[in-house]
Design goal:
By secondary structure, the protein is mainly α. The chain contains three helices and no strands. It has a domain at 32-84. The protein has helices at residues 9-28, 33-55, 57-82. Helix 1 (9-28) packs across helix 3 (57-82) and helix 2 runs antiparallel to helix 3.
Length: 99
């Protein structure tokens, strides 16, 4: 696929979201579920706020919630595919500037 600049805006947005889901899911692999969900709540809130203007608040809220669900789902897939070979991380982490 070409660069985001070569794609129509909607396709570029979807590609950026898919890339971010993959990156965050990998980042959270091995992390405790509760820590991941706390961090993803910040992500959800930030995305809903950022996307409210271009998409409207209701659509932005749904998109942000679906993004978080996609990250959590992909992370579970990564861990299942790894068959327990991902070490458990107990170190807290930050995803947004609000923590």
């Amino acid at each position: 696929m070409g660069s985001d600049a070569d794609q129509p805006p909607v396709q570029a947005f979807i590609a950026q979201c898919a890339d971010a889901v993959a990156d965050l899911a990998l980042f959270f692999a091995g992390a405790p579920e509760d820590q991941m969900m706390i961090a993803l709540e910040d992500v959800r809130s930030n995305l809903a706020e950022q996307w409210a203007e271009p998409f409207g608040p209701e659509v932005a809220a749904v998109l942000a919630q679906d993004f978080v669900a996609a990250v959590a789902g992909r992370r579970r897939e990564i861990e299942a595919e790894a068959g327990g070979r991902i070490p458990n991380r107990q170190t807290p982490f930050r995803v947004s500037g609000k923590n």
